[in-house]
Amino acid sequence: MTHHISTAPKWIVSEEDIASIAEGFDLALRPSTAVPLGGAVNGVVRSMSDAREVVLRVHRLWTTVDRREGVYRVQDHLRSHGRPVPDIFVARSEHRWMWPAATASTTPCDADR
After folding, report:
1. Going by CATH, does the domain composed of 15-112 fall within 3.40.50.720?
2. Reported pTM
3. Is there a contact between 97 and 68 (Cβ–Cβ < 8 Å)?
């Protein structure tokens, strides 16, 4: 028998978060296409833009910039060796993450395709 023990409240990415993230990454998302994908460490939502499917992640407050950059380095390494890892978008800030206006000012997020 397997038991799932949740250590954190269910992570919900709001429509306001999605709109703010899309704006920060210059994405034109189609209305009402967001599908929650869950996420053990962060909120994950799949949505459709005019050009492609995108995945948005809203990280927990304690997720540091160093941790995110470390994850990106691992993803870049795997991608460069032919693994199917999605490209990470670059936000207007020229970082691969941003602080969406609609969320708490300390909630980082990122997006990939």
Report:
1. no
2. 0.65
3. yes
E runs forming strands in the chain? 35-38, 42-48, 53-59, 109-112
Strands 109-112 and 53-59: antiparallel
Residue 91 in contact with residue 72, Cβ under 8 Å? Answer: no
Domain boundaries, the chain: 15-112
Q: Which amino acid is at 74?
A: V
**7 band by pLDDT with thresholds 50, 70 and 90:** low
Quick one: average pLDDT of 48-70?
82
Compute the distance between CA of residue 23 and CA of residue 27 in angstroms, rounded to an integer.
6
> What is d(CA 36, CA 47) in angstroms, rounded to the nearest whole number?
9
Predicted pLDDT of residue 107: 53
Q: How far apart are the two ends of the chain, measured CA to CA in Å?
A: 37
Strands 35-38 and 42-48: antiparallel
